[in-house]
Design a protein that fits this description.
With 92 residues, the chain is an all-alpha fold. The chain has a domain of 63 residues. The protein has 5 helices and no strands. The model has no long low-confidence stretch (mean pLDDT 78).
Length: 92
Amino acid sequence: MASTSWSARLGRAGYHQLEYFFAQLDFYYFWEKRWFFIAVAVGFFMLNIPTPEGLTREGMIILTMSVMATILFITEPVPLCWGLNRQLLPKA
């Protein structure tokens, strides 16, 4: 009767947990939210590039926020009309 070591069993258990995680992972969710992740990546990139001459760090932060908001509004992860519709609806 051959018994396996505890480290081999732990390794197999870890592999099975990782396999279960990827089986439950829904890539459709990430595909639906791709523009959000792209906007975050663009914002991260913009905050890490050197600040152009004549632009302060605070100005670069405002520029980054504006670019990210524009990406999110144009691609509609954040709908622009949602707030307007809520204000224009009559109170019941």
